[in-house]
Amino acid sequence: MKYTTLFFDADDTLLDFQECERSALESSFQKHGLIFNEEIRKQYSHINQELWSFFERGEITKPQILATRFRRLFSELSIEGVSDTFERDYQYFLTVNGCTIPGAIKLCRELSKDFELYILTNGVASTQKGRFEDSGLLPYLRGVFVSEDIGFQKPDREYFEAVLKQVAEQDKSRILMIGDSLNSDILGGIGAGLPTCWYNPKHKENDTAEKPDFEVANYEELRQIIYQE
């Protein structure tokens, strides 16, 4: 087979981040006696995605994300007096919620018989590792590389260089980077000299300069790419 090693992104590639986020937000709002609804989830998600995109471009730090996102949300909602523990509570509820995209466990179980699987993810180390412990995916993975532990984040070249030093396969042409983010997974993979596969189940348009080697809309299409000779 063409590949020996598969680098997977975590959120929205294997883990269902939207559901994990919704559940953690709902639990946090309930704990603090606040009303939660879908509009609030969308508002928070917009803020959070914007801040993480700034982080991936190196414009802000991870501590700034954690210190800013709920402060900004509550300011926009005109909610005052929320405890400073809200972020910590949210992190806890997110950590114990490792909901996967349907079919992800089966996919990893099957692929682990023929390939070495690794997770490459940006995020808070304790949160991401906790989610994978809860997800049921860990038995099929050789390792989980979180940006907070590495000291760099996707798409930084230094992040990928650090990861590549810790895997057995050193022929980059035999390592496939798979992820849903063009600006993080695909840009980073290309910069590191890896073949890339854009996981795009929502059929988004590619409005970036990044050109992945492959694009798939579901796990079955991904299997076909991975097992090609």
Name the overall outline.
globular
Percent range for helical residues?
Answer: 40-55%
End-to-end distance: 5 Å
CATH architecture of the largest domain: 3-Layer(aba) Sandwich
Estimated structural class: alpha/beta
Please count the helical segments: 10
Strand content: 5-15%
Name of the CATH superfamily of the largest domain = HAD superfamily/HAD-like
Explain what you see.
There is one protein chain. The chain has 229 residues and is α/β, with parallel strands linked by helices. The protein folds into 2 domains: 141 residues, HAD superfamily/HAD-like (Rossmann fold); 80 residues, DNA polymerase, domain 1 (Orthogonal Bundle), CATH 1.10.150.240. Helix content is 47%, strand content 11%. It has 10 helices and 6 strands; from the N terminus they run βαααααβαβααβαββα. A 6-stranded parallel sheet has the order 3-2-1-4-5-6, with helices on both faces. The longest helix has 19 residues. The radius of gyration is 18 Å and the shape is globular. The model has no long low-confidence stretch (mean pLDDT 95). This is Noncanonical pyrimidine nucleotidase, YjjG family. GO terms for molecular function: 5'-nucleotidase activity. It comes from Acetivibrio ethanolgignens.
Quick summary:
GO terms for molecular function: 5'-nucleotidase activity. This is Noncanonical pyrimidine nucleotidase, YjjG family. 47% of the residues lie in helices and 11% in strands.
